[in-house]
Design goal:
5-stranded parallel sheet, 10 helices, 259 residues, Trp Operon Repressor, Chain A, alpha/beta, Alpha/beta knot
Length: 259
């Protein structure tokens, strides 16, 4: 999958191509990254990519012309897919959106800086604005890398373990279950903490049942709105609903007993 990224800090993306799963994806060609620096498309000696906002106010605004020239160069080079702008004003990035994006041949991502980008460039070129949360960071580079990482791990052959992408958090609309590894017993603060016995039983049906129950309980306690979404989407079975009802009843009983 090809990613064309407009950024004034292209060196930041070495973190994506130099480490972990995304590095392997870049080495195999599953991830193809093209970086376009608007500074290289300026017409002045100072290579300015920003100016003061009309109407006054703090900060600077990214100029439309260098961005447009960089985007046009990407188009001439064969850029693919829709143009996304990483912005806190965009729609929140979800697992469903990630899955949709992973079906495309490519994406073009605009990384803003300063107080934002001249709105005329956005109106003329951007297909969609995407947010990673209701907070502000220094620029669009880190959000862009988060989006790319999430998308790339959904591409065929990227993850070493078959089923990893389909079994992790949000794949079915729920949080993942707790995970444990060696040692079987861990000594912490003069106490021994073991692993749930069912995970050591070798009974795969019981293990699957326990993991599903833990998914439901963890999601209900931490992100209850995801339970409602899964229910509305028809992803909860009768057994799931019984587990949720039992957990809610037990939680209420515990609360009353401690009152």
């Amino acid at each position: 999958m090809r990613f064309d990224v407009l950024t004034i800090f292209p060196e930041m993306f070495s973190a994506l191509t130099g480490s972990g799963i995304t590095r392997r994806a870049a080495e195999t060609g599953a991830l193809q990254l093209k970086l376009w620096n608007p500074r290289e498309f300026t017409q002045d000696a100072y290579r300015r990519v920003d100016d003061r906002p009309f109407g006054g106010g703090p900060g600077m605004v990214m100029l439309a012309a260098p961005l447009q020239a960089a985007l046009d160069a990407a188009a001439a080079d064969g850029k693919r897919g829709p143009v996304l702008l990483m912005s806190p004003a965009g729609r929140p990035l979800t697992h469903r959106k990630v899955m949709q994006l992973s079906q495309l041949d490519g994406l073009t991502i605009i990384c803003g800086r300063y107080e934002g980008i001249d709105e005329r460039f956005i109106a003329r070129n951007v297909d969609e604005e995407v947010s990673i949360g209701d907070f502000v960071v220094s620029g669009g580079e880190l959000p862009a890398m988060m989006l790319m990482d999430a998308v790339v791990r959904q591409l065929p052959g990227v993850l070493n373990t078959e089923g990893s992408a389909t079994e992790e958090s949000f794949a079915d609309g729920l949080l993942d279950c707790p995970q444990f590894t060696r040692p079987e017993v861990m000594d912490v603060d003069d106490a021994s903490e073991g692993v749930p016995a069912v995970l050591m039983s070798g009974n795969h049906a019981e293990i699957a049942k326990w993991r599903r129950e833990q998914q439901l309980i963890r999601t209900l306690s931490r992100r209850p709105e995801l339970i409602e979404s899964a229910r509305a989407a028809g992803k909860l079975s009768a057994r799931d609903e019984a587990t949720l009802k039992r957990y809610t009843r037990d939680a209420l009983s515990t609360k009353k007993g401690s009152a």
